[in-house]
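Figure 3 (text version): structure tokens given as input.
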């Protein structure tokens, strides 16, 4: 009789403990404070949770914190709530080490307990737009013009949007799953002639690709087979011409196509804007290449990697493999002010015919490379190892020195003293 009572008592205590923990980890629109005692419980309790691993002394962390506070209630109010949480990684080092945290702040998004690196925007409104994508249906079904407008407005401007007019959702469902983290997908079952005019297509079925932030759109009329449809979707994940900055450069991370990069003096100048229009026309005709541009005024350090600066004759065109190599086309290294459309055509023709010179991107400094490759903690480990090796080497040298009391030692000490006095000032100046 006593054993069942003990079991009942244990179950009561266990339920009470879980009940208090459930109350502690409720979705109330606030950023949760996690530590080693409740982290695993939070990850298993919520289907979608974004965790900020921060350090109290980190300036970037301090700037991020109010953005998370602002976004938390909006994300908690979604039909599929997304919870925001934070961990003091400087204090709970074991937890940080378990999740490979080597810099602050580091954001990780857990979907059904599975973590992924979060590399999206960190401003509150953009962060909300970005995360909403992960809890949306793979393919949204739209049944009217107003539903289409609401869908486009709710999707925001961060991701490209695909709308299939007169398409069955099964046609694009596989692609929607494949590119769920990169784009919105929908099919419009019912729409008016006004929608056809607005989205600039004249027959169905058709697939429209929108880039709201760049005010660009493309239309695909088929054939709706895997290879053709897949190529269209993949090529339109990027705008026709990508303006390169710290954020958009991430979009090229998984890109397999070569990048035709035009380096301008200043992106905002009228002549630069005219050239960008010509690049868009070239991009439409050459979908197997990614077209992009960067201004020396806007991002001088990046332009300098391709030997372009204020002293270079600009605009300059190169073909970049997205990594360490790029190619200049012999005879068309830069563009003149006149007839730039013809010069762009000559550049592309020269590249395809192999009239190129291979060059290497100017790399980062050694320390920048180490930081980006292995993280700050690994740097500390490397420094510690080097220090230990130097200490061991120093001890070894001391063992090899003559013993005190021998004439050699006295002579050696005398000569060392003389050399120290002679070179001491120079060492101090170094």
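Below: residues designed for each position.
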């Amino acid at each position: 009789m006593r054993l069942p009572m003990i079991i009942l008592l244990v179950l009561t205590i266990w339920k009470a403990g879980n009940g208090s923990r459930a109350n502690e980890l409720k979705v109330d629109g606030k950023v949760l404070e996690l530590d080693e005692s409740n982290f695993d419980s939070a990850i298993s309790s919520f289907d979608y949770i974004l965790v900020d691993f921060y350090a109290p002394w980190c300036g970037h962390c301090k700037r991020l914190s109010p953005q998370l506070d602002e976004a938390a209630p909006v994300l908690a109010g979604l039909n599929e709530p997304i919870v925001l949480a934070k961990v003091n990684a400087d204090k709970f080092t074991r937890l940080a080490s378990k999740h490979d945290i080597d810099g602050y702040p580091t954001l990780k998004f857990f979907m059904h307990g599975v973590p992924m690196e979060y590399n999206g925007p960190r401003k509150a409104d953009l962060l909300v737009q970005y995360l909403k994508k992960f809890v949306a249906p793979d393919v949204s079904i739209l049944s009217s013009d107003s539903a289409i407008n609401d869908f486009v407005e709710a999707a925001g401007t961060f991701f490209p949007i695909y709308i299939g007019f007169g398409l069955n959702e099964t046609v694009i469902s596989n692609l929607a799953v494949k590119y769920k983290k990169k784009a919105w997908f929908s099919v419009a079952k019912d729409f008016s002639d006004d929608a056809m005019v607005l989205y600039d297509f004249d027959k169905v079925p058709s697939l429209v690709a929108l880039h709201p932030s760049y005010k660009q759109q493309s239309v695909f009329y088929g054939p709706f087979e895997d290879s053709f449809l897949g190529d269209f979707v993949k090529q339109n994940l990027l705008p026709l011409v990508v303006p390169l900055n710290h954020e958009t450069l991430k979009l090229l991370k998984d890109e397999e196509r070569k990048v035709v990069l035009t380096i301008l003096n200043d992106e905002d100048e009228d002549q630069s804007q005219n050239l960008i229009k010509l690049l868009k026309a070239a991009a439409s005709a050459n979908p197997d290449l990614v077209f992009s541009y960067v201004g020396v005024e806007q991002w001088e350090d990046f332009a300098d990697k391709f030997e372009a600066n204020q002293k270079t004759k600009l605009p300059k065109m190169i073909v970049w493999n997205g990594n360490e190599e790029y190619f200049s086309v012999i005879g068309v290294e830069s563009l003149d002010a006149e007839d730039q459309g013809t010069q762009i055509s000559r550049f592309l023709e020269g590249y395809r015919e192999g009239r190129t010179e291979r060059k290497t991107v100017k790399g980062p400094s050694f320390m920048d490379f180490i930081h980006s490759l292995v993280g700050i903690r690994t740097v500390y480990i490397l420094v510690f190892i080097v220090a230990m090796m130097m200490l061991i080497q120093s001890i070894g040298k001391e063992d090899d020195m003559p013993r005190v009391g021998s004439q050699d030692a006295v002579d050696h000490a005398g000569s060392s003293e003389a050399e120290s006095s002679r070179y001491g000032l120079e060492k101090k100046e170094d």
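Confidence is low (pLDDT under 50) at residues 10-23, 365-380, 401-430.
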